[in-house]
Amino acid sequence: MTAQQADSSAAHDAPPALQEHFEATIARDQRIEPRDWMPEGYRKTLIRQVAQHAHSEIIGMQPEGEWITRAPSLRRKAILFAKVQDEAGHGLYLYSAAETLGADRADLTERLIEGRQKYSSIFNYPTLSFADVGVIGWFVDGAAICNQVPLCRSSYGPYARAMVRICKEESFHQRQGYELLMTMMRGTDAQREMVQDAVNRWWWPSLMMFGPPDDASPNSRQSMAWKIKRHSNDELRQRFVDMTVPQAEKLGVTLPDPDLTWNEERGHHDFGTPDWDELMRVIKGDGPCNSQRIQRRRTAHEEGAWVREAAVAHAAKQAARAEKGTAA
Ligand code: BYC
């Protein structure tokens, strides 16, 4: 099925020439830009994915942010501070990309704090020790890289371009996590145990980040036809496992999966099945930290209201001054 046929709603309300142009642009692997005509389904799918992605970055500041005041040295504090700030920046680029599709940022925030829009399941797990900061960098940013490098070739221009910078920063984030863990593994037995414990807790939720298995992923087929997504959830999950196994060996930790083995014939690692019921529970709001994450986001939004009001008042004053200057 072509992208055009798949979006039957658009087929009724757009001149065929516009649809053909959209189809041809996707087929040539060129970018759709904000000024271009696009099927309503394409726009909605992008707003859904880009907004969820932005929310994930912003909510994703919380689990690691909790460790900024407790980082064991000034150096670790400065690194963690910079990383969490980068995540805020990623959220802002992505909200801007969503705005190019006609979404309103204030509305997207409302949807998040009212539970009407999702964010990544991974950020609903607690960070119990400083080793979790390292493991988040290694696994979560590693998974983000596997998922987002192909998104640099996504068919929607502003999303793809935002991804280029975001991926560069994610790559730095992953290295800082791995370097932190290497340091801890050279430390005491207690530090090595902390790392192994964090690996045990974060491994399966990290595999779940890639979404449900392909045969239970309702959006993948259409998103791939539109080249919003370039690979399926299972392909990217496999890529992550293959990338991470040798890194775990080098680090000296065990990945908590008895079924993890190299499959010579496939040229990939075989691995066990994540608990998909757990993923669905967490996505639906019943993870260990869902309510805490949303509550904190809501509080920050409410406490920031005066800043937004002041910025609007300042902009109005500047505009009035500029108008007065032009009139004079
Ligand atoms: N968590 O049909 P599917 C970061 C939802 S932040 C929650 O496969 P799709 C970082 C899915 O939305 C990186 N929900 O969907 C930040 C859909 O629900 P709706 C975050 C999930 O869109 C701070 C339903 O399940 N990355 O790196 O084709 C610190 C069915 O799924 C999840 C992105 O956002 C999940 N894990 O594929 C450190 C990447 N999985 O919307 C690091 C961009 C699925 O139909 N997004 N759902 O109600 C994507 O690549 C895709 O949206 C997904 C899902 C692969 C996540």
Automatic annotation (TrEMBL):
Swiss-Prot/TrEMBL keywords: Oxidoreductase
Coiled-coil positions: none
Domain of life: Bacteria
GO MF term (any one): phenylacetyl-CoA 1,2-epoxidase activity
E.C. number(s) listed in UniProt: 1.14.13.149
Signal peptide: none
InterPro entries: Aromatic_CoA_ox/epox, Ferritin-like, Ferritin-like_SF, PaaA, PaaA_PaaC
Protein known as: 1,2-phenylacetyl-CoA epoxidase subunit A
Organism: Streptomyces spinosisporus
Organismal lineage: Bacteria, Bacillati, Actinomycetota, Actinomycetes, Kitasatosporales
